Amino acid sequence: xxxxxxxxxxxxxxxxxxxxxxxxxxxxxxxxxxxxxxxxxxxxxxxxxxxxxxxxxxxxxxxxxxxxxxxxxxxxxxxxxxxxxxxxxxxxxxxxxxxxxxxxxxxxxxxxxxxxxxxxxxxxxxxxxxxxxxxxxxxxxxxxxxxxxxxxxxxxxxxxxxxxxxxxxxxxxxxxxxxxxxxxxxxxxxxxxxxxxxxxxxxxxxxxxxxxxxxxxxxxxxxxxxxxxxxxxxxxxxxxxxxxxx
Length: 246
Hints:
Elements: H1 3-24, E1 33-43, H2 46-51, E2 58-68, E3 75-81, H3 89-100, E4 104-109, H4 130-143, E5 148-158, H5 160-167, H6 171-177, E6 186-190, E7 209-214, H7 222-234, E8 239-244
Parallel strand pairs: 3-4, 3-5, 5-6, 6-7, 7-8
Antiparallel strand pairs: 1-2, 2-4
Helix pairs in contact: 4-5
């Protein structure tokens, strides 16, 4: 065996053994694998969404990043839906926190594929209900994934994404748009806008809804969420609103 070949083989063996050692000592928050998915979706007006008029929608491809947590077999997943500023640093913090718990994550980007970065200064740039279509289309992808436990997929969203998370629980919307064959195990909206009422909006899936909100919030005031939560409780739904005074 030529000397150069032996030297190269030894170097490769050293690199492989070092890589394996590093992989075995990965911090818990580091995912074992990342997969990027194109998500075929639609851009619709809110009225088109409410009428179930998919034919009127403009086809669009948004994206999702699936990070498989350390562990084996089918794992639980948290789907994360961003707010009006798109996917940001706080999303990454949540991903690391969940991955460290052995929970995989699926982060939806509902803006870039639509040519948007932020909608905070002009919420009319995108109909409020579009992100719910993206959420259900993501659920279709996860329902078929061999590393996902389809009975343990939770939806979490923030602000505009929190609103989408909250209303994605409506039976009416699931019947219109959720073609995955499964349901989310729970819904966790953070500081959503609860001011819009929909026909049949107390008819939600029989899964826990846990809303988290800041009491002093003057952009999405908690008052409207309190009213909605009371209506849901009166209807016998499993819903809890937690407020943070600071």
